[in-house]
Write a structure and sequence with these properties.
By secondary structure, the protein is an alpha+beta fold. The chain contains 23 helices and 20 strands.
Length: 570
Amino acid sequence: MSTHARPLAVWLAAASDAQLAALFAARSVRADVAWTDFFDAAEALLDPASIERVLPRLTLAEATALRRAVDGGDAGTETDALVALALLRPDGTPAPPVAETVGDRTVPAPSTADAQPAATEQQAARAAERAFTSVAAIADIVLLAADSPLTLLANGALGAGERRRISETGTAPGIIDDLAAIATDAGLLQATDRRLRVTDVGTAWLRLSASARWTALAEAFRDALPRGIRTDAGGWLPTPRWPRQHPWDPNWAQRSAALTARAELLGLITQNGAEPEWAVPLRQGAPADATALTRMLPAEVDRIFLQNDLTAIAPGTLEPALDVRLRSIADRESAAQASSYRFTADSIAHALTTGETASSILDFLGEISLTGIPQPLEYLVMQTSQRHGLVRVFTDPGSGRTRVTSTDGTLLDAMGVDQSLRPLALARDADGLTSRVGRDSVFWTLTDARYPAMIVGPDGAPLVVDRNPAPPPAPETATDHRALIARLRAQQGPDADAAWLDRELEAAVRARAVLLVEIAMPDGSIRELQLEASGMGGGRLRGRDRSADVERTLPVKSIRSARVIDPSTA
């Protein structure tokens, strides 16, 4: 048993529960770890493998201070932080296992010369355009995920099929991962069951103005930055310093480059690393101010032109809330400052499925149209609305099965023989079709097959069902160490010296080690014995006295100290 663990065990025992919880979280300690007392904890935390895992988390300042302490110097202002990570003793010195694990690792020299240059007007304009384009692309990704969750690979990356879906909206393939990461950090998307789904936050974000969208993304990006590049004021260090801030993390160069690329996508830095005016408050830890950015963005419009060929043209950047609703009714054909949309029977049917009605669609289009509602479009909406709901899907209260009914018997016959509906196992009876498959699954399968289906409740009233409901809030990922801490406290005795001695003796017995034991004699004198430890129990240590070559049994309470010695030198 290492004697280096004792000072750490004493510190752990004296630490508060909050300190222990922070330490265990930082060192990635599992809540169900099999530690019985603080000595076990100290031994485990000083294990080289455990130390190796925490070194990549150290910031440049912490790594520099630890390097200095290992070399015999003073860790300075970082002492408390390193003690809290169990990498330094309370006196500021590293335990030998820490020094050995740090070894000859080097740290780059700290620099304060890497200031963020201010962007010129031309550079700022390009950054604003990049930010505007990125926000619009993220909105496209969120809308696609709302329509159908994005499939993730085992490593968490988007699949090739999803990349194609996203790139078809005009987004460059090379930035898709970064845009998805920005959206996830902002809570717009959430990964559940290897699917990327839209959250309630994402749904609300879609209806914000362009500047408010950017503000939410920029502040969330800042909040998600690693602590090595965050400042005490809540901002971030100049981006030229980012690559050096986690010097012992082998993956930091790649991660730092990705974060820099995301900052550029959000217009927080320019392509050559300069800083626009609107990024300064964020870097300093203040709330985002999009005023300067908004001045450089194209003006938003709230009107469109409806045309006889069933298309709509926005004469500028359409307000996000209007764009989102219009895209729920029509298919967007082109995305630019003047976007175009096309109305089809399928797009109108999709809107009706999600809760729109013929009246709500026509009222909405009438409010935002500069040219009124063309007759072909009105006819398409009314005709699709009349056909919608011809097939009614509901749960039979008696049998619990799903029933499909329609006033059009020919349509029921067609569904009964439709090969694309075979998984539903539809069975015909006098009143329609039945299936053992759930109501919602039957409805969406019929809808995908372009049947005019509608879900109705027990009273026959239409129901709106969300095909891809927002996932529940992500569960708290922090490990709860309260039970572990309580277990360690329960084993904490009043006499740490006696507890440590017991552990030393038990370890010596297991190793059959030779001990130099100091015994307090009844007359008050101290006697030393060289004892080959062979057993321990009932408060007594048994072993062979090497000098007298006899077996001895010593009361543990009489042992003042014990240390392992080399048998060859004894």
